[in-house]
Design a protein that fits this description.
CATH superfamily: Protein of unknown function DUF3243
CATH class: Mainly Alpha
Radius of gyration: 12 Å
Protein name: DUF3243 domain-containing protein
Structural class: mainly alpha
Number of domains: 1
Largest sheet: none
Oligomer: single chain
Number of strands: 0
InterPro entries: DUF3243, Uncharacterised_YmfJ, YmfJ/YflH_sf
Order of helices and strands: HHHH
CATH architecture: Orthogonal Bundle
Strand content: under 5%
Number of helices: 4
CATH topology: Cytochrome Bc1 Complex, Chain D, domain 2
């Protein structure tokens, strides 16, 4: 099963990547920019695998670039306390 198929697994996966980035010294602006790039890639290239991803994809599709950056930033905040630490 792909990590994208289960919302909690996806959040944990993102949380692990976020923790790793922070431990490597990446600052918040760089992390948010990477989150935006990942969100943009997923929206354009990956079919949503669950209801939560479908909602995000639908929101992303109607959002301006500034709003997309806000969505990406909120996803970073959402997963900050997730992951295996």
């Amino acid at each position: 099963m792909s990590v994208l198929e289960n919302w909690d697994e996806w959040k944990n996966f993102l949380g692990d990547r976020l923790n790793h980035a922070e431990n490597q010294g990446m600052d918040e602006k760089v992390i948010n920019n990477l989150a935006f790039e990942v969100g943009d890639y997923l929206a354009k290239q990956v079919d949503p695998k669950n209801t939560q991803e479908r909602v995000l994809a639908d929101l992303w599709s109607v959002a301006s670039q500034q709003e997309q950056q806000a969505i990406a930033s909120m996803m970073v905040k959402l997963v900050q306390n997730n992951g295996s630490h």
